[in-house]
Design a protein that fits this description.
By secondary structure, this protein is of the alpha/beta class. It has helices at residues 8-17, 45-52, 74-86; strands at residues 2-5, 31-35, 38-44, 66-70, 90-97, 103-108, 114-119, 123-125, 131-134. The longest helix is centred in the middle third of the chain and has 13 residues, at 74-86.
């Protein structure tokens, strides 16, 4: 997944401050972070728009897209939320138990991208943190 960044250096720093390991080839022209089985990439927003949405107006406010960081244990929602806020995220919704039986919280990175930090009963993750299943 790729996020268009208005400030590559600022967004790179934020994700490094979360403790996410940046790929060695990263710079302010492209940056990558391997998260479980997903590659999160950052690319300058103007260059991404030219490739993916040439001629479309730049988005403003919330895009309607929320990314999710699944965790192994209910308590990790609270600790992950605290780490993200300490790294510079904006608290969008404090951790709460949800009606569907899990626990989650929402943050926005320094450019407003929304992330849900969530624990779901029955969610199975492998050693890398990649989702391998949900439910029985």
């Amino acid at each position: 997944m790729t996020l268009g960044a208005r400030s590559m250096s600022g967004l790179r720093r934020f994700y490094r401050d979360l403790g996410w390991e940046e790929l060695p080839a990263s710079d302010d022209g492209w940056a990558g972070f391997v998260l479980g089985g997903v590659l999160l990439t950052l690319y300058p927003a103007d260059r991404l728009a030219a490739e993916a949405a040439d001629g479309a107006p730049a988005p403003t406010g919330w895009s309607g897209i929320t990314l999710i960081c699944n965790v192994d244990e209910r308590e990790q929602v609270d600790s992950g939320f605290a780490v993200a806020v300490a790294a510079g995220a904006t608290a969008v919704h404090e951790p709460v138990d949800r009606s569907w039986g899990g626990r989650s919280a929402y943050i926005a990175d320094p450019e407003g991208n929304r992330w849900e930090i969530a624990w779901a009963p029955g969610l199975r993750l492998d050693a890398r943190g990649a989702v391998t299943g949900l439910g029985g």
